[in-house]
Amino acid sequence: MNPSPKSAYIHIPFCKSICTYCDFCKLLKNPVFEQSYVKALLEDIKKANLKKMKTIYVGGGTPSCLEDGLFASLLAKLGESLGEGYEFTVECNPESLTPEKARIMKEAGVNRVSIGLQSANPKYLSYLGRTHTFKAVEEAILTLKSNGIENINVDLMYGFEGENEEELLDDIKAILSLKVPHLSTYSLILEKGTILYGKGVKETEGDILANFYEIILKELRKAGYRRYEVSNFALPGYESQHNLVYWHDEQYYGLGLGASGYENGVRYKITPSINNYLKGIRKVEEEKVNKADDRSYYLLTLLRLEEGFDLREFRDRFDEDLLISRKIAIEKHLKYGNVIVENDRIKATDKGMLRLDSILVDLL
Q1: pLDDT digits (tens, 9 = 90+) for 14-59
Q2: Pick from 300, 180, 161: nearest CA to 230
Q3: Burial, 199: exposed, middle or buried (Cβ in 10 Å; 0-12, 13-18, 19+)?
Q4: Residue 73: closest CA among 34, 113, 112, 99
């Protein structure tokens, strides 16, 4: 029998405006829907009977755009579920991160905040449909720190149409000036259904993205950040404990509109329809994870980590010696310098991190 998860993801779908690149489950802010939604979500949290949680992550959408009263009631309820040494993260946009929101978070036990910067360049902020300025991000961070919240992540996006190296370096310089302990970096991906996709915008070519990634890696390492996952960088001790749950292929609750979860060997997804959600409909997809699926998920997640994974743990979990079963593939990637095998661990090199898809195809 699988133990109960000690992590939970909570989804808040509301946003004051819709970003041009976003394909997450989101809705324009609506006070009537917000009241009904938070009421239903609080019932789900109660039913889940969350206890002694190691990590809670409230994402969106824009959790910080909730009205103060709803925001406070939701976070207070979640705060009751925290265990010792917890990490409690809330995603915020700078324009809705007010001193009152910061006070509410601190009072509820929130000790980590993730801010969507995306870019410091006004041109690209407009392109992405972001309504904040870089100055607003600086002010939001000061507000958090003055309320005793120091564990802050900032998101940086790259690979915009027409972006050049100089603009990327300016963005990196700006994000480093914020002096936060955690940075997440993502290339712009244009999913079907997004505004940019509908306009026919094309993704930046792979060679350019690889070059941009190498620039980011070099500059952030130089500034003292360690890449611990392909897209995430932290100062020592500030790695995201919640995201490591995903990347270690561990189980977690998923609560709220469009959320995904993994419990008792079953991966599931909650309905993305607000109307259905408010009618009481919840899980719309369920996948019982068999051993072959579990093996695939394990490789897909753990190979993203800088430290890779323990081959002995893999043997114990799947009754398979990967060095034997995938001998030819591993030798090929060793020869190309894509992976390293040492001390019974396998991990991707800097070069290999750019070729994870190719490595995974061979190992899966």
Answers
A1: 877 555 554 555 566 777 789 999 999 999 999 999 999 999 999 9
A2: 300
A3: exposed
A4: 34
Could you report the per-residue pLDDT of 210-269, keeping only the tens digit for each? 999 999 999 999 999 999 999 999 999 999 999 999 999 999 999 999 999 999 999 999
pLDDT in tens, 8-18: 999 998 877 55
Phi-psi region of 308 (alpha: psi -120 to 50; beta: other; left: phi over 0): left
Q: Where are the alpha helices (DSSP H) in the chain?
A: 31-48, 68-79, 99-108, 122-128, 134-146, 165-177, 195-198, 206-222, 241-247, 274-278, 291-302, 311-318, 322-325, 327-335, 350-353, 356-363
- Cβ neighbours of residue 238 under 8 Å, at least 6 residues apart? 151, 181, 182
CB count in 10 Å sphere of residue 266: 14
180/331 Cα distance (integer angstroms): 40
User: Is residue 17 a contact partner of residue 131, using CB atoms and an 8 Å limit?
Assistant: yes
Pairwise CA distance, residues 171 & 224, whole Å: 17
The pLDDT score that the predictor gives to residue 204 is 66
Tokens for 342?
Answer: 């040492």
* Cβ atoms 108, 71 nearer than 8 A: no
Q: 291-302 vs 356-363: helix axis angle to the nearest 10? A: 160
